Structures are given as C-alpha cells and as structure tokens.
Amino acid sequence: xxxxxxxxxxxxxxxxxxxxxxxxxxxxxxxxxxxxxxxxxxxxxxxxxxxxxxxxxxxxxxxxxxxxxxxxxxxxxxxxxxxxxxxxxxxxxxxxxxxxxxxxxxxxxxxxxxxxxxxxxxxxxxxxxxxxxxxxxxxxxxxxxxxxxxxxxxxxxxxxxxxxxxxxxxx
Amino acid sequence: xxxxxxxxxxxxxxxxxxxxxxxxxxxxxxxxxxxxxxxxxxxxxxxxxxxxxxxxxxxxxxxxxxxxxxxxxxxxxxxxxxxxxxxxxxxxxxxxxxxxxxxxxxxxxxxxxxxxxxxxxxxxxxxxxxxxxxxxxx
Lengths: 171, 138
Description:
- The complex is a heterodimer.
- By secondary structure, chain A is an all-alpha fold.
- Chain A has seven helices and no strands.
- In chain B, a hairpin with a 4-residue loop joins strand 1 (27-34) and strand 2 (39-47).
- The N and C termini of chain B lie far apart (66 Å).
- In chain B, 42% of the residues are buried.
C-alpha cells in the first residue's frame, strides 16, 4: 500500500497537472491521514510504527506543497527538470526590477504612514494575484515562462513580508 | 550568523548611496535582483570620454551583505576603465568582506550589477554613435 516513489499528485490520485480540485485534495488528504495515523499502529511492532510515521510525514509534506499555488508550481516544474531558483536561470527583466526598486522606495518613505503602507500593500497584493493567475495558465504549457513568474512571486512575497512588518511596527 | 567587521562598516556607513542623473548620456545603470532572497540592487556609473569610471552610486534593498557588497564595488570601480571594472570578480568581493558561504550570492549579485551597468552604458553609447553617424556632414 505504501509507494514512496509516487509523485505528490499520484499520492492523492490527482492528475499530473497544475490545475487540481482543492476539495478533492482536501478529502483524500484526510482519508490517507486517517489510514496512516501512527495511533492506529499502537501495539504493533516498532518497524510498523516507524513506517506509519514516515508515511504520515510524506502525506503531510505532499499536502503542504500541493495546497500552495506557489509551491505546487515549483514542484511541477522540478518534475519537468526545471529549477525555478537554480543558478543558471536568466536575469530578471529590468522593468520588473525597476518596479521592485520603486516599491522599496515607497516602502522606505511610507514607514510611519499607515495609509501609505496599506496602499502599497494593496498594490503588491493586486500584482501578486495577477501573477498567480498567469501562473495557472503557464505551468503545464510553458515551463520557462512559469519559472519566471515564480521568481517574480518570490520578490513579491518578500516585499509583502516587509510591508507587513512595517505595518506591525506602527501598531 | 554574525557579520564581519567590514560588512558592518559598509552596512552602517554605506559609501556612495544615491542616484546619478543622466543628462549627458554618460551614465550606465545596472539593475539586478536575487529571486531566492528578494534582494534588488541598482548600480550606476558615470564614465568619462577616456572610458574611465569617474563616479559610482548604488541603491540596494536587501541584507547587510548585499548592501556591503554593492557599497564596496562603488569604491572599487571608481578610477577604473570599463575593462578593468569588468575584471572584478565576486570571489574578490566575498574575500574582502569575509562573506560566509550562504552569502556568496550577494557578491555574485554585485559582480552582475557591474556587468549590467557597463553593458547599459555601452549600449547607450552605441546608439548615440549610430545616431551621430547618421547625421549629414554638411
């Protein structure tokens, strides 16, 4: 019953693609987790228990990755042999970097102004959403393009984090 | 993880922070970013007619090592020709700042920023020369 070589998607009986039904993921995750729960193996020998623990950990990890659009995208590209954050990826486009620079400048200026910070937060959020939409259309068809979108998203996550920290500091 | 004294020095007193405004077409701007950590770096150089870098400024949003690496290269490129500037290797930056292995990518970013700034200057210059060449010589 345990196949450690299955992909995260195979584990949950899902098709090998980016677009998946998150409700199906959720219910299969619960089913599998119940089956593999180490408590069910109480009283059995050590090996069985250890195996159940490993299995349970494997299911949790696969679920964590597939649930997140960003992680799922990275994972599917890795299966295709593409490392979105590998050393040999092309440089980021200058206009994107310019935009990043501007956002960071706005963040530095807005440090103590909650309304400005919230405006910035919203524009980062909008940009992130549109990138996530682009991502869903590219992972299965155009891996290189998807890898670039994932790299862009990583910059936005970082920025979002910093805007969040600045907002928290104001409270 | 603790920063080396040199990193702290550049971090606390960064050299040549700012922006160069391009009025005479003698500025090259290099923009680079590291997706893994979200750092962004802008390096600008002002180049005279002899092809020597007269001034350099940077703006970096990132960790202390990224700031120190870019601050250091603005000092290093000044007075160098474009060719000499392109010879600056990330290993030299990392060594000078005693960067730990996990921060080597910051020095790579700084090296890439020099290359990008030089390339930007050269492409602008090529366009300008082409433009001059097309002017009628009455």
